[in-house]
UniProtKB/TrEMBL annotation, chain A:
<keyword id="KW-0812">Transmembrane</keyword>
<keyword id="KW-0349">Heme</keyword>
<keyword id="KW-0472">Membrane</keyword>
<feature type="domain" description="Ferric oxidoreductase">
    <location>
        <begin position="44"/>
        <end position="157"/>
    </location>
</feature>
<keyword id="KW-0288">FMN</keyword>
<feature type="transmembrane region" description="Helical">
    <location>
        <begin position="7"/>
        <end position="28"/>
    </location>
</feature>
<feature type="transmembrane region" description="Helical">
    <location>
        <begin position="112"/>
        <end position="129"/>
    </location>
</feature>
<keyword id="KW-0249">Electron transport</keyword>
<feature type="transmembrane region" description="Helical">
    <location>
        <begin position="77"/>
        <end position="100"/>
    </location>
</feature>
From TrEMBL, chain B:
<comment type="similarity">
    <text>Belongs to the MsrP family.</text>
</comment>
<feature type="binding site">
    <location>
        <position position="49"/>
    </location>
    <ligand>
        <name>Mo-molybdopterin</name>
    </ligand>
</feature>
<keyword id="KW-0500">Molybdenum</keyword>
<keyword id="KW-0560">Oxidoreductase</keyword>
<protein>
    <recommendedName>
        <fullName>Protein-methionine-sulfoxide reductase catalytic subunit MsrP</fullName>
        <ecNumber>1.8.5.-</ecNumber>
    </recommendedName>
</protein>
<feature type="binding site">
    <location>
        <position position="142"/>
    </location>
    <ligand>
        <name>Mo-molybdopterin</name>
    </ligand>
</feature>
<dbReference type="GO" id="GO:0043546">
    <property type="term" value="F:molybdopterin cofactor binding"/>
</dbReference>
<dbReference type="GO" id="GO:0030091">
    <property type="term" value="P:protein repair"/>
</dbReference>
<comment type="subunit">
    <text>Heterodimer of a catalytic subunit (MsrP) and a heme-binding subunit (MsrQ).</text>
</comment>
Amino acid sequence: MHRIRRLPTGVVWALGTLPLVLLVWDTLVGNLGVDPVRDIEHRLGRTAVYFLLASLCITPILRMARVNLVKFRRPLGLLAASYAGLHLLSWAVLDMGLLWSQMLKDIAKRPYLTIGMGVLVILLVLAATSSNAVIRKLGPVRWRAIHRWVYLAAPLAVFHWLLAYKIWPGKPLAILAAMAVLLAFRLPLLQRHLGWRARSA
Amino acid sequence: MKLSWSDVTPEALFLNRRAFIAGLGVAAAAPALAAAEEPNSFEQITNYNNFYEFGFGKTDPADNAGALTTDPWAVEIGGLVDRPGSYSVADLAPGNAVEERIYRLRCVEAWSMVIPWLGVPLASVLNKVGVQSGAKFVAFETLYRPDEMPEQRRNSMDWPYREGLRLDEAMHPLTILATGLYGKPMPNQNGAPIRLVVPWKYGFKSIKSIVKITLTDRQPVTTWQAMQPREYGFYANVNPTVDHPRWSQATERRIGAGLLGGRQETLMFNGYGDQVAQLYAGMDLARDY
């Protein structure tokens, strides 16, 4: 387990581009079935959520399993932001056919699109403030304050996913539940209870 | 002798189609046949389905509907009719009465297809059983058979699926009971052996695998309307000016248009306004959506 730590972060990047490579492959060989537009769009969105979920696991793993994977958190977050960006791009170009007026109206009017855009804006801000230079410039307190927005962005991303359905589908609901558990670990009350946080802090 | 689907020859279908064009006249036939639009392929029509009894994914019906037993099949027709009873598919849609109808299908999820159905006008079935004067609505029910329909084993929806039409909508010449497509018997995932097709309404109105038809004097409660009354109305006419609360209905994506196919404008009554708009004269379709 501890050997994982010694892997270079490039490994995360390499594995992280795999879903994209597979998607491009499936598109080119015609594996996507009757409606490739929908598949491309949905797979990119789902992949973004998976990476968000993975990035939220880093701290609980550190606390519970005492395995320090913190150096992998940045690439995981950047991958999530990248897939979210590609997801938006696929929506705008493939799904909406760049109908700008309808797109803008829909983003303003449809809660699931408004929420989705909000999530993307948060993720892009987090991505833009993730370089060492920016972190140094902001200082740890301000940087942490900004990056706590992921606690809002992650569940909203799944909410955005759920709102696009006519029924309550199992998979996003399960992911939302997992996310709720991961976010609960961030609550000071629970952290004190688990002894992760000094009583005085 | 019972006429099975294998007895229906392509020639017979071809002749029936010609008979339909000649019989109904240009006004009804030309737009109904959607001549300018290429039908979707059999592959597309049978691998992209909403048939929630077999799962919520678009390919779940194709994967799971093989287990459905469609022969023998009985449709129970009752309520305000002169000749209630249990009818076979051949009783309702005898092979020599089946016509081809190429219709646009517009899903409430803002995608669309063009489908060459085979079927009979619902009016011919209703006339056969004799509609009584008090009847104002027609209620339909899908098969409830949990051992063959996996999603019915879960409480995800209030099964069986129910739909309904006003009597004049049901009697309209565009409304058919379909028993096949592309000259073949209806594939299970498309609602075998007999389903409704109402081309000017969102797809969910066109209830599949029907086992019960009831003539009634009261507006029936339909599945989606009961589940989400704000999102799905009883009428559910295709209407680009009345959006689904969560998404726009102004445009649609034609399945099979390709990666860069973009969107096309959704037409009022799915393009069948010339034939059906008079059914709703004086109604506020933003209220009765």
